[in-house]
Every structure is written in structure tokens, then in C-alpha cells.
Amino acid sequence: MLNLEIFSHKLLLDLLKKHPVTIKNFIWRAIQNASRQGITFLILVVSAKLLSSENFGIYSYTVAITYFFTLLADFGISRAVTKFVAQYNTESPSKVKLIYFNSALIILTLIIIFSSIFLLLAKVIVGENYHYVYYLTPVFIFLPLTSLFDGVYSGLKQFKKLSIISLIAGTITVGATYILISRFGIIGAFLSLNFYYITSFILFSSSFKLFSFKFDKKIISEVGKYSFIIGISAIGYFLYSRGITYILGQFNYFTEVGYYEIIDKIFVMLSFPFIIYGQIIAPGVTEKITLSKYDNVLSQFKKSLLIAFPLSIIITLFLWQLFPPLIKLFLVKYYTPNFIKMFNLLLVHLPLLLISGFIVQPFIIATGKAKYSLLTIPFGFMNIGLGILFIGYYGFMGVIYSTLITSITNKIITFYLIYNGLRKMR
């Protein structure tokens, strides 16, 4: 344990000395993610505190399904845009102004298609609590469009501006969240999410200057084709990371849905420093690939793993010790044997989750190797199949077992493919 801490400390000091610009961008990106994801986490915690365990599970279940359909509306475009903005900014800067408008055309088309399907078939998809999804209609529209702004700013490395806007939106929303949930209960929780994404979109739109309302078929084709691969993989990722929520809800394990959502949100929050660093270096990796500096990219990948591995182990060990007492202190009604059992089992794959967050954006998407992420499709369906099978034998813990099996196997294979693919590019 001590050797891991010393090793990680030396690596971080070396990073601070050699890459001051990267660290500066990391800090601003961290502020942006803290405000953006922190507000969704705050809504989750306040909802868990003020709602009953069952209503909180219903809220989490409804939001998870809604996010799946917003994922379809985005379909990887916001992540692909980061790559193309960085690429165009290197090769042909005049094309950067065309990115948002043409990408937004694709997203708006997908929003109309998938939100219509979801709202019309809500009762079939969601079940008896389907009426709640109508309160989240604004999320269908403004979440994908806000994510698109995020992708453009990231590609331009304008992390400071991105952070300030997100921080303002988060601060404005904080004041409204407790009031809305206290007054309107579960509906107030849904309204809080709407308020945040609408506010974010308004702030981004009013400050964004790189608009050019010119239709460009080539950009739509390039972004659309590349994002299609990312979008397909994102669906697969959802199936084995969020499919558990859907299965539990379908079998009326709503209290256990709440357990899983709390644990998963903590894991997501812990992964942000890793994801942020990956997002920060991704435009630089794209530039190196564009300039055929393949050896540098492979070397950077190896160094990234050397940093991510010990840090992920240390974080997992600390969480194992600290999280249960914190739950007992702040959310005592969730401090149950079933919650602790679920938490301890899911900790097994946390290191791989953190490392994956570190390397996906720079070494899969930014290098043009998005096809590797398609592995999430077979593993996603495998998770759903095993989850349904196991829940009959092991109850709600069955879906935890299926998630661990598919998640760990998928990530190990993906890491190998990334390394082998970068090595062959040299």
C-alpha cells in the first residue's frame, strides 16, 4: 500500500513539472465536471434523503431509461465532435465554425425520432410509472444539445470557458433543487433536472461565437459515420452498466434500484478525475496521430496506465473503508446488509472502471480506433441475458454477478486491443 502511494506520488510530481498546461486544463475541466455532475449527484442525494426508498428507486429507474433515449439522440456525436474539432483546427481552422450547426442538425433529427418513440411507447417501456417520463421531456432536448457544446469546447481546449459556464449553471440550480424536491417530491426531482439542462443550454448558446449556419454535407457525413460507431458502443455500454437498473425495475426491485444508483453514482464521481485527464490529452493525441507520431502515442498510453493503475487501487481501498460509515451517517435508511453486500461486490470491478475512464477518449476515440468500443455490444446483451437468468436463481444479486462477469471480461479484452492496435500503427 505504502509503495503504491510513493510510486503514484512520484509520477504525479513528474507530471506537474513536465506538463503545466495539461494540469491547468485538468483543473478547469475538473471544475466543469464537478459543477455539471455534482448537480446531478446533489439531486440524487437530496432525492434519496427526502423520498421513500421505493420512490427514490422509481425516480432512479425512470431517469435511467430517459438517459438511454437521450443517449440514442446524441448517438456518440458529442464525443466524436471533440476529435473532429481538434482535427479541423489543425488541418483547416475555417471548418471549425461549421461543426456545431451541422452536428446539431443530426442531433435534432434523432431527438425528434427517439423522443417521439419513447413518449408514445412509454407505458410499454417503463411500466406502471410511465407517466413520470413526460416530466422529463425537456431533458430529451437540452441534454444532447448541451453535450454537443461540451464536445466542441473540449476539442478547442477551451476548458476554462467551459468550466465557468457549467459552474454558473450548477450554482443557479443548487438553490432550486431543495425547494423543488421538498415541495413537489418525486416530480420536483424531475423538474430539477429539467431546470439544470435548460439553464446550461441558455448559457452555452449565449456565449458561443463559433456559429456558421451553413449546411455542409461532408461534415455531416464525417461526423455521422464516425459517431455511429461510438453511438453503437454507447448503447452496449449502457446495457451492461445501466441495464441492471432496467432489469431490477422490471422485476419490481425498486428499493434495490436505489441501492445500485447510489453506489454507481459514487463510482461515476470517482471516475471523473480519470475521465477528465483523458479528455484533456485527447486533442493532443489526435494531433499526434494526424502528424503520424505513433511512437509518442504508444509511449503516452503506457505512461497513462502506469499512473492509472496504482491510483485506481488506492482509491478502491479508501472507498472500501470510508463509504459504509458515510452512508450510515447521512443516509441511514440505506445502510442495510443488502446494500453493503452489493457495494462490496461491485468494488471488485472499480479499478478497471477507473482505468477505462482514463484511456477511452484519448486512445480509442481520438486515435480513430472507435471500432474497439463495439465490444460493448455483445457484452451488453450478454449482461442482459445473464442478468435475467441469474435473477431467477439469486434474486436481485444475480444482476450484480452478471454485471461483474461482463464488465471485467470486456475491459480486459479492450485494454489488450488498444495496446496491440497502437503498437501496430508504428
Describe this protein's structure.
By secondary structure, this protein is an all-alpha fold. The protein has one domain. Helix content is 85%, strand content 0%. The protein contains 17 helices and no strands. Helix 2 (20-50) runs antiparallel to helix 9, helix 5 packs antiparallel against helix 7 (137-155) and helix 12 (254-290) packs antiparallel against helix 13 (294-330). The protein is globular and about 55 Å long. The two termini are 36 Å apart. Mean pLDDT is 84; it is low at 4-9.
Topology diagram in text:
Layout: H1 2-18, H2 20-50, H3 53-74, H4 77-91, H5 96-120, H6 122-126, H7 137-155, H8 159-184, H9 186-207, H10 217-241, H11 243-250, H12 254-290, H13 294-330, H14 337-346, H15 350-365, H16 376-394, H17 397-425
Count of β-strands: 0
Q: What is the number of helical segments per DSSP (H or I, 4+ residues)?
A: 17
Order of helices and strands: HHHHHHHHHHHHHHHHH
Radius of gyration: 21 Å
pLDDT < 50 stretches: 4-9
Mean pLDDT over all positions: 84
For the record, the count of structural domains works out to: 1
Distance between the termini: 36 Å
Provide the structure class: mainly alpha
Shape: globular
- Sheet with the most strands? none
Strand content: under 5%
